[in-house]
Input
Amino acid sequence: MKNASSIQKIPKKVVMEQEINLADYQINIADIRQHIDEVAVNKTKKQPQNAEEFTADTKALYADFAKEKMGIEFKDISLFITALTHRSYVNEHKKAHIEHNERLEFLGDAILELVTSDFLYRNFTEPEGIMTAWRSALVRTESIGRASTEIGYLHLIRLSKGEKLGSDRTHASIIADCFEAVTGAIYLDQGYLRAKQFIYQHILTKMDEIIINESWRDSKSYLQELAQKTDGATPQYHVIKEEGPDHDRVFSVNVVVAGHIRGIGSGHSKQEAQSNAAAEGIKYYKKHLGNQLPATGRLTLRK
Output
């Protein structure tokens, strides 16, 4: 993980885009809000609650982490705290009005996709389908969840006691959602440029790794190409084990090519287990064929 000293410093004077005047486009937010209230299914108005107040120690804890580990000095540290607040924590603390991170996640998700798409479009000339696969690999749950882990703020995520004891799959989703929410918080507090730099530092630096490992490719399609060109056979998938409760089921699947098991994978759905088994099958062919690996439409990146 990079420390604050290795993070590129931002010029003090940053030219920001001029604010849009909604009146120029005849957009009236008050009217829109009124119409939302008029068509709302749930007409019950919630009783006003006191907004959450953070102690000086809490603010210092989050501010120090952001400055020392992320190189960011938040003007409004409550945005960063909210970005790391899960809905379950709110449900467990109903006496005060606590905001969870889902709105920031919504915003950060859009910024992450925009920055990633812009990066790919400007630097590569591959077709839309290829760039879409690259983008998916860069911003999928596993990728952004790993970024959260590398940054190191997992101990700052506010969860309910029950959620802390949840499944690994649930935790992976929560951690990934936090990265998007933190991106949204940085955008609101520091501006688009700083949010863009955050994404470059923690996500787009993984681009070369994704290309080398070919993790952007659909593993089942890739294995099928390898199997047909090497063994003249189509992979067959078989569920070999199911375990765990219904709400957290784990499937184990093997993939067989020409009568030989080429990989075994597990997952919380049959599709996930098949994909993981296919990935193991690809490793088998790469290991045993080496330089004799057949061509399967592998890309040559244009410089």
